[in-house]
Amino acid sequence: MRNLQPNNAIIPILRLGPENEFIELLGTGFFAGSRPVVVTAKHVFLDNPLGEGENYGFANERSIEEQTLGIISHYLQCPDYDIAVFNATSWGQDRGRC
Predict the structure, then answer these.
(1) Domain residue limits, the chain
(2) Rounded to an integer, what distance in angstroms lies between the CA atom of residue 29 and that of residue 86?
(3) Topology of domain 6-87, per CATH?
(4) pTM, rounded to two decimals
(5) Backbone phi, then psi, for 40, in 5-degree steps?
(6) 3, 5, 32, 44: most buried by Cβ count inside 10 Å?
(7) What is the SS3 assignment for 65?
C-alpha cells in the first residue's frame, strides 16, 4: 500500500510576470487522473485578471524559489460550479473556456 503524500499532489497556482518570473500566489490545485490534469477553483482565475504581459503559472515542485515554473496556456471552467481544470504540461499564453 502506498502512502498519501499531499506535497506531491497539491501545487501552487501563480501570477507570472513578463519574463515568467514569480509575482504572486493565487491559489492551489491538485492533480487528478492519470494525465497531468490539475483541478482548481474557477475563482482563482476569474478573481485575478492578468495585467499586460503576465501569465498564469504553476509550480511543479515544493518550493517556488527552487523549481521550474509552468505556464498555464489554456484552462477550462465549468459554467455552473466553481471548478476549473488545466493540463499541467501545457505552455503558452492563450486562455480558454469550455
Answers:
(1) 6-87
(2) 10
(3) Thrombin, subunit H (2.40.10)
(4) 0.78
(5) -145, 180
(6) 44
(7) helix
